[in-house]
C-alpha cells in the first residue's frame, strides 16, 4: 500500500518551470532590498575570491619550503594571515546583512499575507480551517525565512567558488582538472534521482503539517463540546492518525534528502583518491610540483564542497518552495472587488430587495425571487424554519455574498456599487453568538468605533444597561477579557455587544435573537437596551422565538428561500397561513 502511495506522489511532482516561477516571485520580494542585497553579493564575490586565494598561497608556501627560501615563505605566510582575516570579516558582514534582508523580506511577506486575509470574501474562510491558514502565516513563512538567511548567500558563493576553482585548476593542470570533473556526471545523476523523490515529499509534509495544525486549532476551540460529549478518545485517535501521516511524509522527505550528504562523501573520497594516485604519478614524472598537487587537492575540495553545499541547500530550497507555493496560493486568491464603488459617508437606511435569487454553489438556489422594501426606521423581522434563508438575506445585505440574480438597493444605490467598508461601517450587529476579543472591556466596546472617547464608551455602556455590572468587576472598564469573553456570563456578553453597537451609531441594525439562553432578569435588561438601540433605526431581526417580535413593523415569513407571507403579527395570525401555523406550533411546544 505504501509503495502505491509513493508512486502516486512521484507522479504529482511539479515541472521545473513552476519552481522557476515561484523563485521569481520570491525574488520580487527580495528585490525590495535591492541595494543591500547587491552589497551582500559584492561581499560574497570578495569572500569567494579570498577562499580561492588561500589554497593557492598554501601550495606556494610548500614550494618555497622545498626550495629552502625562507624570505619567500615568511612573505607568503603574512599574506595568508591577511587573506584569512579578511575572509572572516567578509563572511561575518555578509551573513549579518543577509539576515537583516531576510527578516525584513519575510516580515513584508507576512504583512502582505495578513492584509490579503482581510481582502478575501467570507466564502474563502468557510472553505478553510483557520488552523491551516495560521500554518501558512507561521510555519510556511518561517520555513522561507530560514532559507533566505542562508540559501541565497550559499548558492551565489558556491557558484562563484565552483567557477573560480575550475578556472584556476585548468590553469594549473588540465589533466588533473579532467580527473576532478569525472565525478560531475555521477553527481548530477544521483541528484536527479534524489530530487525527483524529495520535492513531492516536502510538499506533502507541508500539507500534512497544515492539516494537523487546523485539526489542533479546531480541537482546542471546541474542547468544551468534546468533553460534554465524552469524545476525548475519538479526538486522540484522529490526532494519532494525522500525526502518523505527518510522520510518514516527514520520514520519507528526510530519508531521501539524507542520501545527498552520503553521495557527496562517496564522490569526495573518490575524487581525492584519483587525484592522489594520478597526481603522484605526474609528480614522479616531473610534470607537476608537490606544491601544485597540494594546491590541486585543496581546489578539488573547493570544487566538491560547493557542489556539496549546493546539494544540501537544494533540499532546503525545495522545502521553502513548498511553503512559498502555499503562501502564494493565498495571495493569488481573488479579492473582493471594489471597482468604481461609491463611498457613502451617511445613509438613511432605506432597503429594497428586487427579485433577488442566490446560490452558494451555483447548483441549488437557497433564495428564490425575494422581493420586499424597508423604509427608514422600520423594524422588519425574518421568521421561518431552519434553512429558510433568513441568515442568507442578511449575508447578502452586508455583502458577504452577492446576489446571483436581482438587485439590492440601499437609499436607491445598488450595493454592488457601494464599497463594502463604507456599507458595513454604517451597520451594527448583535448576534446570538457574541465574539469578544482578548483585551479590556473598554477596548471591546470601542471596537464599534475606534475613535470614540472614554466618555462615549461609558455612555454607550449605560445605554446598554452594562455599566452597573462593569463597575462591579475588579478593574471596571479596564478589566481584561480572554478571547471570546471568558470569565463573564452569556447575558453580560450580550450587553457588551449592544454597547458596541450603540457606539457604532449605525443606520442599519441587524439582530439575531439576542435574548436566548439568558435568565429572565438579564433578558429584561437586554430587551430594554435593544429598545433604545433600535429607536429611529432600520432594523432587521432574525426571530427564533416568535413571541419576541410581536411589535415589529413588519414580519417577513420565509419558506424554502421564498417570502411566502408578510405583514404585522396580528394580520398574519388573522390570515391563518404559514405564520399562524408556526406560531401555534411553537406555542404548543412551549406549553
List keywords for this structure.
591 residues, alpha/beta, ABC transporter transmembrane region fold, Rossmann fold, 2 domains, four-stranded antiparallel sheet, 21 helices, 65% helix, disordered N terminus, ATP binding
The biggest beta sheet is recorded as: 6 strands, mixed
Secondary-structure-derived class: alpha/beta
Helix content: 55-70%
Q: Work out the count of structural domains.
A: 2
Structural account:
This protein has 591 residues and is of the alpha/beta class. The chain has two domains: 23-331, ABC transporter type 1, transmembrane domain (ABC transporter transmembrane region fold), CATH 1.20.1560; 351-590, P-loop containing nucleotide triphosphate hydrolases (Rossmann fold). The chain has helices spanning 2-11, 16-30, 34-66, 70-117, 122-126, 130-172, 174-181, 183-221, 223-228, 232-257, 259-284, 290-331, 390-397, 420-424, 441-446, 454-463, 467-471, 490-504, 520-534, 569-575, 578-590; strands at residues 351-359, 365-374, 379-383, 405-410, 413-414, 427-430, 439-440, 480-481, 508-512, 538-542, 554-559, 562-567. The strands form three sheets. It has a six-stranded mixed sheet with strand order 6-9-10-3-11-12, with helices on both faces. Strand 4 (405-410) and strand 5 (413-414) form a beta hairpin. Helix 6 runs antiparallel to helix 8 (183-221). Mean pLDDT is 80; it is low at 1-13.
